[in-house]
Specification:
Elements: E1 3-6, E2 10-16, E3 31-37, H1 39-49, E4 54-61, H2 65-73, E5 77-84, E6 90-96, E7 102-107, H3 116-124, E8 131-134, H4 141-150, E9 154-158, H5 164-170, E10 176-180, H6 181-191, E11 202-206, E12 212-215, E13 220-223, H7 236-249, H8 254-268, H9 281-286
Parallel strand pairs: 1-4, 1-8, 2-6, 4-5, 8-9, 9-10, 10-11
Antiparallel strand pairs: 2-3, 6-7, 11-12, 12-13
Length: 289
């Protein structure tokens, strides 16, 4: 089994700030670090470190080869990451305050130029029962999800950054939907339907420090978060998503997959950074909470 992830790849620029800047405010940063990020890359790295065979479908600019190589070093299959000469690699400006909260500005770059032939070539390798994952930092999500569904793949969608139109288009093809509490409220407002009435077999709503809620078409179950003191929440949701899908791909029941993912996300928020500090399965298994 394998996870095929149509996802963004970003260069993340982290600025440590005393507080998140307000409108019109000029603020001196206390430090700068660059790392691999993007919701797609984060989820691919998390899934690979959680033990799943993970194939990333994406694109970088000429200056972004380091990002592709770092993903490969983390165990991700990057054969379907195209290198584009005429657009830059996507990047993110991330302000992180002393409490670990963040504010992010994105430049899509190559993430919005993934060639159609790249997507088609990757899915041509997939087998019935494999997982197809997509987020909202690329384009052609619904079109590719439809292709994956027709091939018999389990179609998973992380509805972030939230876009009501994009989500409405992809909903008919989904087996799995994950979103946070704010995004869930936005989706209910846009569709007039609760998460359990969307027709998606598995819906997970992440609740931050309160944990996560798993909703099927017949029941709802809450899972508590691990008790930790966060230093940086960046990438925690992506880590959770990658771990849940990797655990499911390896045959674990959804309840166990969610509990494992909760441990991974809890460990993630105790670290500064994004893809480069996502914990591997050994770290998660050995963690004491």
């Amino acid at each position: 089994m394998a996870i095929y992830n149509l996802g963004s790849i970003n260069a993340d620029y982290f600025y440590r700030v005393p507080h998140l800047p307000g409108p019109g405010e000029t603020l001196a940063a206390q430090g700068l670090n660059r790392g691999l990020g993007g919701k797609g890359a984060n989820m691919s790295v998390a899934a690979a470190r959680a033990g799943a065979r993970t194939v990333h479908i994406g694109a970088v600019g000429n200056e972004g080869l380091w990002a592709r190589d770092q993903m490969m070093e983390s165990g991700v299959d990057t054969r379907h990451v195209s290198v584009l000469s005429d657009v830059p690699t996507g990047h993110a400006i991330i302000n992180v305050d002393a409490s670990g909260e963040n504010a992010i500005v994105l430049l899509p770059g190559a993430n919005h130029e993934i060639p159609e032939e790249t997507r088609a070539a990757a899915l041509a390798e997939a087998s019935t029962g494999d997982t197809f994952l997509v987020q909202n930092e690329t384009l052609n999500q619904a079109e590719t999800a439809k292709m994956a569904r027709e091939l018999g793949l389990y179609v998973a969608y992380a509805a972030a950054p939230f876009d009501a139109d994009a989500t409405a288009k992809i909903l008919p093809y989904l087996d799995f939907l994950i979103l946070n509490e704010v995004e869930a409220a936005q989706l209910e407002s846009a569709t007039g339907k609760t998460a359990g009435a969307l027709g998606v077999p598995d819906v997970i709503i992440t609740l931050g420090a309160k944990g996560a809620r798993w909703i099927t078409q017949t029941e709802s179950r809450d899972f508590p978060a691990m008790p930790v003191t966060p230093v940086d929440t960046t990438g925690a949701g992506d880590t959770f998503t990658g771990y849940v899908l990797a655990a499911r791909d390896r045959g674990l029941p959804m309840e166990q997959a969610i509990m494992l993912a909760s441990r991974a996300a809890a460990l993630m928020v105790t670290r500064h950074g994004t893809a480069d500090v996502i914990p591997d399965l050994k770290d998660v298994d050995e963690a004491r909470f």
